[in-house]
């Protein structure tokens, strides 16, 4: 579909306005992060700091166990992402390329779980985690999030585009199902796998309610829970630059990951949607 020139101009203008709005908010946050505690932050206050406080870069690590929060988020985020990519790709391969009794019903059940709010599951899930003695442990943060219905759907739709002839040729050559999955299917769906990895990492990185329920000690708190605790402890305007700096540092991994995977992300979503 080709857009007419006036439509293109309107679309570009809207995108430009949205981009400038996001950049201005981010710039304002950066400038606040480098202000001194005594400077104003509300309406009518100057944007530019009177003097850049470069020591604010280290302040989050000095007033709280921010390094521990950061490490925990990295460990949990990477583990959950890797497990989701593996389990969702394997399940998507099963739903896409195998025929067995109950396959369609099982896939419908998986899709139906997308309509169930996570908050509804938190009470029975917490009870299970408590019975397994996974409270205040990485197992309680990682294993309940090891797969996702959205990821299974995404990978199933992507693997549908892999020709069956390639799989039959690999099997005729003596390759087992695991070898076929790793050597034939995975190279053809690396873009959707990258898109899935980005989705899962970002959603897990920003997750707050479940880590708040199962990780109450600093040794297992992730960044969203840690930032909330820091905000509660840094009362008044004096702690605003430190909290904003901590939030900006917490934002860096997701921004860098998106920049690294943005091309694969776009191509993966286009492939899943059937766009050529």
Global structural class = mainly alpha
> At the third CATH level, what is the topology name?
MetI-like fold
Based on CA inertia axes, which overall geometry fits? globular
Main sheet: strands, sense, barrel: none
Q: Supply the number of structural domains.
A: 1
Low-confidence stretches are none
Share of β-strand residues: under 5%
Question: What's the β-strand tally?
Answer: 0
Averaging pLDDT over every residue, what do you get? 86
CATH class: Mainly Alpha
The total count of helices amounts to 13
CATH architecture: Orthogonal Bundle
User: What is the CA-atom radius of gyration, in angstroms?
Assistant: 23 Å
Residue share in helix:
over 70%
What string gives the helices and strands in order? Answer: HHHHHHHHHHHHH
Calculate the terminal CA-CA distance, rounded to whole Å: 12 Å
């Amino acid at each position: 579909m080709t857009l007419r020139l006036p439509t293109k101009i309107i679309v570009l203008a809207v995108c430009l306005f949205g981009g400038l709005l996001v950049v201005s908010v981010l710039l304002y946050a950066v400038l606040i992060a480098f202000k001194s505690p005594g400077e104003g932050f509300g309406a009518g206050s100057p944007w530019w700091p009177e003097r850049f406080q470069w020591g604010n870069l280290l302040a989050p690590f000095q007033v709280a166990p921010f390094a521990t929060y950061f490490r925990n988020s990295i460990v949990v985020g990477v583990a959950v992402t890797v497990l989701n990519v593996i389990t969702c790709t394997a399940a998507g391969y099963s739903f896409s390329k195998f025929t067995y009794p109950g396959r369609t019903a099982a896939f419908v059940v998986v899709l139906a779980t997308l309509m169930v709010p996570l908050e509804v599951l938190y009470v029975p899930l917490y009870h299970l985690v408590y019975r397994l003695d996974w409270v205040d442990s990485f197992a309680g943060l990682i294993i309940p999030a090891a797969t996702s219905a959205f990821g299974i759907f995404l990978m199933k739709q992507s693997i549908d585009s892999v020709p069956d002839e390639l799989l039959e040729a690999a099997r005729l050559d003596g390759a087992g199902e695991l070898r076929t999955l790793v050597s034939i299917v995975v190279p053809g769906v690396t873009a959707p796998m990258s898109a899935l990895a980005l989705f899962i990492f970002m959603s897990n990185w920003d997750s707050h309610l479940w880590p708040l329920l199962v990780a109450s000690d600093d040794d297992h708190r992730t960044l969203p829970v840690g930032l909330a605790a820091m905000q509660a402890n840094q009362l008044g305007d004096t702690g605003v630059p430190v909290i904003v700096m901590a939030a900006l540092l917490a934002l860096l991994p997701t921004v860098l990951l998106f920049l690294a995977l943005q091309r694969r992300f776009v191509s993966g979503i286009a492939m899943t949607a059937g766009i050529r």
